[in-house]
Amino acid sequence: MDKKSRRRLLLGAAFLMATSAIGPGFLTQTTHFTEQLAASFGFVILVSIIIDIGAQLNIWRIIAISEKPAQDIANKLLPGLGFALSALIVAGGLAFNIGNIAGAGLGTNVLFGISPEMGALFSGLVAIGVFLVREAGKVMDRFAQMLGFLMIGLTVYVMFTATPPLGEAVVKTIAPDTIDFLAIVTLVGGTVGGYITFAGGHRLLEAGVKGKESLEYVNRSAVSAIGFASIMRVFLFLAALGVVAQGIQLDPGNPAATVFQSAAGTIGYKIFGVVIWAAAVTSVVGAAYTSVSFIRSFSKSIEKHHKWYIVGFIAISTLVFVSVGRPVSILILVGSLNGLILPLALGVMIIAAHKKSIVGDYKHPVWMTIFGALIVIVMTYMGFITLIEGIPQLFE
C-alpha cells in the first residue's frame, strides 16, 4: 500500500468513527450540558477527550496486534464471550440506529418540509446506496469525510455568528466553577460507547492495517478520530455558549435547533437541518457497518454476503421508525445496554493485551493498562445506573 492510499485509509477510518459518534444524541448532549454548566462545560469536554483517547488507543491497538476483530478476541479469551459481546453490540446498534434514522427524518423535515417518516425513508435509501456500489469501503470512507467536513464547517459558521465569550470559556476549561462527573461519563459514552469505538478499528483491520508494524498508523488514526469528534464538540459548545450567554433559553425538546436558529436566524435553522441530517445519516452508516462487523466472522455465508446484511440492518431500522414513529418501549432497555458495552469490551481488550496466545510477544504499555482499567470501573458503575433507570420506563 502506497503512502497516499494509506493516508486516505487512515483518514477514512478516523472519520468513520468520528461521524459514528456525531449523531443526533451528540448534538443534544452537547447543547444540553452547555446550558446546564455554561463555560465550565469546557472542562468536561477536556477530561472526556483524555478518557476517550485512552479507551480508543487500548482497543484499536489490541485489534491491530491480534489481527482479529473484537468478538474473536473475546471468544479466544473466554469461549462464548464474543457471542455475548456481539449480541450487545448488534442490539444497541439497532436501537441507536432507529434514533439516527429519526434524526435524519427531522433534518429533511427542517430542510424541505416533508414528513419525518418520508425523510427517514429517503435517508435510509441514501445510506443503503453507500453499500450497494462497487468498492463500498472506499465510498463509505469518502462519504464520512465529506459530510464530516460539511458538519464542522457549518458549525464553525454558526459559532462565529453566536459570538461566544471565548476568554471565559478558556478560563473555565482550566478552572471550572463546578465539576459534573455524570456529564463526563455521558460524553465518554456518547463518543466511544457501544459500537462507536470499534467502527474505525474494524475498518482498519478489514483493509489490512494490522500487526506491530502498523501500530504507528493505528495510533495516529485513533487519536485523529477522537480529534475530529472533539473539534465538532468544541465548536458546538462555543456556539451554544454564545446563545446561552445572551440569556436565551433552549427548547428542551430540541436544544440544538434553538442554538442554530438563535445564532443565525432562518439560515441557522436550515443549517441545523443540514447538520443533523449529515450527523444522523453518517451515524446510520457507521452503526450498520460496525454492528455487522461483529457477526461477520461467525459464518462464511455472513462474511461472503456481509454487504446485504448491512443493507438489511439499515432497512429494518428505517422500517421500525416509519411504522412506529418512534422506538418502541423495549428499545429503552436495549439502548441502555449500550452503556455496558464499553467497559465490557475494554476490559476484554486489556486482559487480552497480556495473553501471549492472543498478542504474542507484544508488550502493552503499563500506563494504557492502568488508564483503561480506571475507565472500565467508572463506566461499569454508570452503565448499571443507566440500565436501572431505564427499566421502570418500560412499565410507564
Automatic annotation (TrEMBL):
The keyword Nucleotide-binding does not apply. InterPro entries: NRAMP_fam, TAT_signal. It is a multi-pass membrane protein. It holds the Pfam family Nramp. The chain crosses the membrane at residues 37-57, 77-98, 110-131, 143-161, 181-201, 222-248, 268-295, 307-324, 330-353, 365-388. The lineage of its organism: Bacteria, Bacillati, Bacillota, Bacilli, Bacillales. GO terms for biological process: iron ion transmembrane transport. One of its GO terms (molecular function) is cadmium ion transmembrane transporter activity. It is found in: Membrane. The keyword DNA-binding does not apply. Keywords: Membrane, Transmembrane, Transmembrane helix. It comes from the Bacteria. This is Mn2+ and Fe2+ transporters of the NRAMP family. One of its GO terms (cellular component) is plasma membrane. Its main location: membrane.
